[in-house]
Design brief:
about 180 residues, alpha+beta, Bactericidal permeability-increasing protein, domain 1, 6-stranded antiparallel sheet, 3-stranded antiparallel sheet, DUF1439, signal, Lipoprotein
């Protein structure tokens, strides 16, 4: 009888105090593998922009205690009527609140905000931010609908947390998924 109780109690105790830390590097690696964003906006022949976001740097709790920040560096090719195409460097800083989705077993973002948008060189004869803002919004929607990290079902601790209703906290620049 005591063996049965021990067999039943040990997994419950392990799960009840389980936690898993997701570092900036973990999220960075996940996004590097899973997130390549390319978007276009505008009307060809009038005003048209193609942008690729593929260099994203992650910070957890660095700008605000409850937010993740994502610095996205990219290149954009902008073509405007009667002007030669121009390459622009586009740097966007987003911040968002992380949350855990039990059904997906993954961490997502919500309440995404554009903290900073820097465009270099900014010497087009039209408002560049007005042209590129729709792309930035599309990238933001992309980030809101894709996980920034997914728990690994092959890891016992992560699998145990995935099936529970864990709490997500930011501590010491890491996301702590805990019971």
């Amino acid at each position: 009888m005591s063996r049965i109780l021990t067999t039943l109690i040990i997994p419950v105790l392990l799960c009840s105090c389980a936690s898993y830390s997701v570092t900036e590097g973990d999220i960075q690696s996940y996004l590097d593998k899973k997130t390549k964003v390319e978007r276009t906006v505008g009307i060809k022949g009038v005003a048209y922009a193609n942008i690729k976001f593929n260099d994203i740097t992650v910070g957890i709790g660095r700008v605000s205690a409850d937010r993740i920040n994502l610095d996205a560096k990219s290149k954009a090719k902008v073509t405007i009527y009667n002007q030669p195409s121009q390459e622009l460097a586009l740097n966007v800083n987003f911040s968002a609140i992380p949350y855990y989705d039990k059904d997906e077993g993954a961490i997502f973002l919500k309440n995404l905000e554009v903290e900073n948008l820097d465009i270099q060189p900014n010497n087009l004869n039209v408002p560049t931010k007005a042209l590129l803002s729709p792309i930035v919004e599309m990238v933001g929607q992309f980030l809101l609908t894709r996980p920034v990290y997914r728990l690994n079902e092959d890891d016992f601790k992560q699998a145990a947390l995935k099936t529970a209703r864990p709490e997500l906290l930011i501590k010491n620049h890491t996301l702590v998924v805990q019971m």
